[in-house]
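Much of our argument rests on the idea that a fold can be written as discrete symbols. Part of our work consisted of pairing the sequence of a single chain with a tokenised description of its backbone. No coordinates are needed to read the tokens, only the vocabulary itself. The record that follows shows the chain in one-letter code together with its fold in token form.
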Amino acid sequence: MDKKTVIAIVLSIAILFAWDYFVLKPQRLKNVKPQTTKELPVKENPSPLIPESETVAQASPVAPDTAQEEFIVTNTPLFEAKWSTKGARLISMKLKKYNEFAQKPNPSITELVKRMFDKEASKVKSSELVQAINTPMPGVFLTGGASDENLIFNASKTGTISIDKDAFALSFDTRISDGITLRKTFTIDPGTYFIGYKNTIINSSDKARSLGINVVQKVSYPVDGQLSKTTFNGPALLNGKHLEEFKLSKIKEPGQFRPFTGNIKWFGYEDTYFLNVIVPITAPEASVNISRLDNTYIASSYSQQYEVQPGKTIEQDLGMYIGPKEYNSLKLYSKYGLNTALSFGFFDIVAKPMLISMNWINRYVGSYGWTIIILTFIIKLILYPLSLKSFKSMKGLQKIQPLMKEIQEKYKDDRQRQNQELMKLYKDHKINPMGGCLPLLLQIPILFALYRVFQSAIELRQTPFHIVGTWLPDLSAPDPYLITPLLMGASWFIQQKMTPTPGDAMQQKIMMFMPLIFTFMFLTFPSGLVIYWLISNILSIIQQVYINRVTE
């Protein structure tokens, strides 16, 4: 392989990583233009939570109930959810399989919903959804200002409920306004993070009611809160087939909001690893407003209009997914588009198969560290024919090196003739000068895809690699001991010394610097990715030794 080509490819890898880090990630954080049926600019001041209704007989809010607030706890193998009869809202959601922090001695369970008072919320550092989703949800507002916020509901069940086998329905009833009863029903499935959610409006009055039902999630995102700089963290929604990830800097002023209209599949909040969204089951044409309420809170409001005749009942079918952005969990609800929340960007088409393969291998070996090593073996095995072809090409180039130098010297003042003679030389010796690039060209998208997977797949979050005790504490984080990147650099250097080296002395010196440059780059990469590249280099060295023997 031509040295210039190798240098160009290696530099391309470095540029691609730099491009991803400094350009693509900031772009992913930017809000793309919403695909609304009627695109509107960011608006100020009007209240986005309660839409105006032009029809008569608006609901009159009743006075807050003075009954005592009660709590219901539902336990499943996956989570512990705590509900309050005040507003019939979820006030706590703890995921039993995920710790908030990897470091001991404080491996507290991840709590995706947490009721806090405003003063506490203003101090929240919104670096993760774990800390951001901290208010009761969901809230329901009706046309005319009626809200469930301070109403005490009658619960169908109280106390602590264990749900191990069959789905369980928990319902809450209250009179939300004159002649209007609101019933919230939550169906909890012990095997998933998806909770069925239904709002039922019962009109027991003698008048028709035109009601706008607004389902609201209110989340603390302080204006000065530091969000993740590497992955998206904030409001998101799926509008038709288009994923909207909304940048909070566009609604920094209280009262500003951004409307989205269309076929809303889901809306809510996401970060690198977790998702907290509401899913309209029937998904009719509806609207979602993302609004800045004050310096602390952001609200996402989903609005639908209903006409309820006297003595009639209407139902609004929804669902809630509050859990990890785990591939298998999200795939169960692909009919609602939840799987789109897991995206690896430009290399998604390669990254998803890689993640699926890793999950499949991990089912049998029970260790993602060994899974990475096995996957590396498989990739190297698949690429072996190309590696062999590459090596033969490079050996051929090495043999004709003296002839190439003669041509370059002879036609140094005639570049066109020089190229013609070189091409003739390649043809006479049946050498493809680009043959050596093929394995590397295939490795680049694989490397990038794995980079994205190790950076944002929850399957690898806080996952240790056990060899002697815990060798690496977290495969999604850099190696704290710097062992793997240094070994990777050393293996790269050895591999390069074994590679045929046609070309001039300056090019060879540049190539020798490449392992050093990439070692510094890999110091900050997820340790899982470094293991992949380290094992790949070791296997390349073994391949090199084997090919040398069979080709001599």
Summary: Residues 27-63 have pLDDT under 50 and may be disordered. The chain is about 35% helix and 25% strand. The longest helix spans residues 368-399. The CA atoms of residues 398 and 502 lie 5 Å apart.
